[in-house]
Amino acid sequence: MRRLFFVSLLQQLRVVWPILSGVISVMVACGLVIWRIEDWRLDEALYFTFVTGLTIGYGDFSPKHVSARVLALVIGFAGIVLTGLVAAVAVKALGATDQRDEE
């Protein structure tokens, strides 16, 4: 049953991969712009990007410039879309596993 789930999960990921990669690309691009605006180290900017995008938000880094704050909002919304996509793919894979298990 576990194998069916992972096979179905990979099939679903292949379907949404263009959207998923686009969302991640937008997040990384915004993080790189914030890196330049805020004059942070690159690892700090990417850390901020994914902590913000995954809606964790520790608060150890916060942008000071208005344009960087706007980009942080874009990262946050992209993170919500990313979370929704991952959840939808997992639910679809579980449903497909359940259907195959009943057969």
Helix content: over 70%
Question: Can you tell me the overall shape?
Answer: elongated
- Cα end-to-end separation: 12 Å
Look at the structure and give the mean pLDDT: 92
Largest sheet: none
Question: Low-confidence stretches at least 5 residues in length (pLDDT < 50)?
Answer: none
Radius of gyration: 17 Å
Briefly note the structural class of the backbone: mainly alpha
The helix count comes to: 3
Strand proportion, as a percent range, falls in: under 5%
What is the number of beta strands? 0
Q: What's the order of the H and E elements?
A: HHH
Describe the SSE topology:
Layout: H1 2-38, H2 42-53, H3 66-102
Question: What's the gist of this structure?
Answer:
With 103 residues, this protein is mainly alpha-helical.
Write structural notes for this entry.
The chain is mainly α and 103 residues long. It has three helices and no strands. It has helices at residues 2-38, 42-53, 66-102. The radius of gyration is 17 Å and the shape is elongated. It starts with a helix and ends with a helix. The mean pLDDT is 92. The chain crosses the membrane at residues 15-35, 42-58, 70-91. It comes from Rhizobium calliandrae. This is Potassium channel family protein. It is found in: Membrane. It holds the Pfam family Ion_trans_2.
